[in-house]
Amino acid sequence: MCRFFATRNLILILPMIVIIHPLSAQNIETNYDESKVPAHRLPALLRNSDGAKITTAEEWVKNRRPEILHLFEKFVYGKSPDTPANLAFSLVEQDTNALDGRAVRKQVAIYLGDPNNPLRMNVLIYLPRNAQKSHPLFLAMNFYGNHTINDDPIILLPKSWVRNNEQLGITANQATENTRGIRSDRWPVEKILQRGYGLATLYYGDVDPDFDDGFQNGVHRLYNNELQTKPAADEWGSIAAWAWGLSRVMDYCEKDEDIDHKHVVVMGHSRLGKTALWAGATDDRFALVISNNSGCGGAALSRRRFGETVKKINTNFPHWFCENFKNFNDKEDELPINQHMLIALIAPRPVYIASAEEDRWADPKGEFLSAMRASAVYELFGQEGLPVKYMPAINTPITGTIGYHMRTGKHGVTDFDWQNYLDFADGHFNK
Ligand code: GCU
Hints:
binds alpha-D-glucopyranuronic acid, alpha/beta, ten-stranded mixed β-sheet
């Protein structure tokens, strides 16, 4: 009787679940309950694969750091090509009296691949108009085109694929005039300039359009070998390609005397926050790294499986990471690394991790724990990493060589975030 009752109810209940929630399986499975975070152990940060303990900065730099970098390349983001030989820059537009006289604007094209049919990335640069010879700079990618960050009518529109967004009025996968300045609330250009920093930005779709087309568009196809039609299982996905694109902008910065290339901050939000962290880990020319709400595959510890998980991210965005990463769907504990090790790769350079209280999908606590756990490597360099062991109160930035805050509000970039990034950069650049 009892068994019959149970079976009959199962038959009744199961179809109901499927019928009531056909599209929200993702939400049913998502864990937002701290008490249900599975018990887990993080891989040892300060022990070589042969078991030897790392006790000095020299041992870290020589032995453990290369191992960890290699593991991230092989299993998570994929290995990117070296700096290409045939890289060309061209200053396509310049105005020394831009933004009502407050800025110098430059627009630089970076050409990649076959010089007869190159791939072009447009970089927009604003520099303060002051007496200083060269300027420290924030470098950050944007989601919808350079022209969306400010309503300056001279900014070039991207020609590459743009994600449709009805709310923003983008319907034909193309940038349009009426989207000028639509994201200016996230880009306080004037404030950045007033504080003495320049700002450089490029549209991430110029490097690799953000959809899964088997890597036929964007930079990947330029660097396949003769036998390849797409990257191998341990080669670059889109996040690694975007990070590689940021390094190409850095190549330009090194050549522009108006830019203080020793003080370039790489910053990114969300998927571009993951990108900024990988750019900072792979390219030590970035003096300071900022991850805004980067979550899974960014700052958050994936072993916690809180909010977005490895399986969810690989299913929804199959092109972001390398193919090998999919072997860890629902197997986070088998990853030989975890995301605190990504932050540690940036040591001893300053890094700031920011979370938002309502952005539970990105697991704020997991982002904080990563920042905290990476501190051990900063300590090898005689620096204080993150100066606290417990999550700070809301809207209370904590800054050592690692910085962290969790602000009120949702997933996004706010004035509060920028204020703290500018203060953090000032502190570390002795401004
Ligand atoms: C999705 C994705 C996140 C990502 C975010 C974004 O929410 O699941 O991993 O950070 O998009 O880039 O906006």
